[in-house]
Fold this protein.
Amino acid sequence: MQRPQDETGIFARYTTEEIIAAALPWCRANNYKLVIKQHPYCTSWRTADWIKTLTDDPHLIVTTGDVVKIFSKAKAVLTISSSVGFEALLRDVPVFCFGASEYGYLTHEVFDLNNLGEMLTEILLSGKEKQSSLPGVYDFAAAHLYDTADEADIADLYQAIKSYSLKTGTHLGWMPGELPPEIDFREGYNGENYLLHGFSTLDNPGVPSNQSRASLAFEHHGEMEIKTLSIAYTVYAVAQHPIMYFSILWNGQPVGPWASGTVEEPSRKVEVPVPVQPGINTLSFMFVNPIQPADLPTDFDVRLRGFVLHHIAFSDE
């Protein structure tokens, strides 16, 4: 549960009471326990009184216990948009999200409570092989941490990703490669050395993004240099949102003005000077006005919203 005054309530599609009322009948019918974890800093007497009315139901447990221990036995986590949902994803527990959240696309987003029972059955009772959320979660974390300006954080994350990549042998593109003269992005990534964290891979040319930021990382073994960075991209705008803006960040700091694209002129090219430092350098793209799936027409493929990177190049000034 989240505190009544929590700002995440602004992004909620339903109240906690409505979510519990929708989930509890499914739990009764399928012999599951619905565990309510009260927020440790909730001081609302109204919430406390409401929780007391729930304790008589044998399929409902109210606890103030350790959330990590709860995760160890949880089959799914229901949340509006709190960090608890992301913690559950890190432990590969399915998450049902009832509010707008930046990590929402990694979860089973609930836009209609009438569909909750069917969704729970599909994920928990269908007998289908569970799809791990960890690759997407790892990618999401890398995208958000890689644009930090803290060199220690960048180095720590780089080592973590490198260890994971070497261990799994499946995502060598997560390791920063040498700073290249240029990269053409086709069918998701270029060779084995350059992959954008936070970007989805589709079969169409380029690298589409379906979240609000994404990043690359490069290693530079020379002295500090000033390079001109050229970026060719396409923005997928729609009539309801005819223009999209995004920031370009180099080592966590904005460089140049906002970039943009429109319905009339979706493909553009920008050039900005960047200071290439010895060691790891990061290039990030962050939407200023990301579009949520709920804002799009029902017949619009949400995977194609946003931003496609086609080509980047580094040249001497």
In short: Residues 169-174, 187-193, 199-210 have pLDDT under 50 and may be disordered. The first helix runs from residue 16 to 30.
